[in-house]
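Onboarding guide, step 5: your first structure request.
Type a short instruction followed by the sequence, for example:

Predict the 3D structure of this protein.
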Amino acid sequence: MEFAVVLPAVAVVLALAIAGVALVDAQGRLQVAAATAARAYGRDDPAAARAAFDDTAPDATMSVTRQDHVVCVVAERRPGTGPLAAVTVRSRACAATAGR
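The system replies with structure tokens like these:
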């Protein structure tokens, strides 16, 4: 009897743990994609920035802002399915432009 009660709770905890690991992985990929794209935009190479971003985070969106001699890239994506599907993962990275 106790096993039948505990098993669903264990399944929920396990599903949340796996979803959490997937969320952390998504955050790391977005950070790498945003940083790589920001550095490429800083070198004034938008084609390389887009290519690097699409290779690292193909299902994410990217927005670019420039202010003074700094370019910033914000990357966003939704993890997809699972218990944390409604969570939006966001990462921001900035780099100095070539004009310093």
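Each response can be followed by summary notes, for example: The beta strands are 61-67, 70-77, 89-96.
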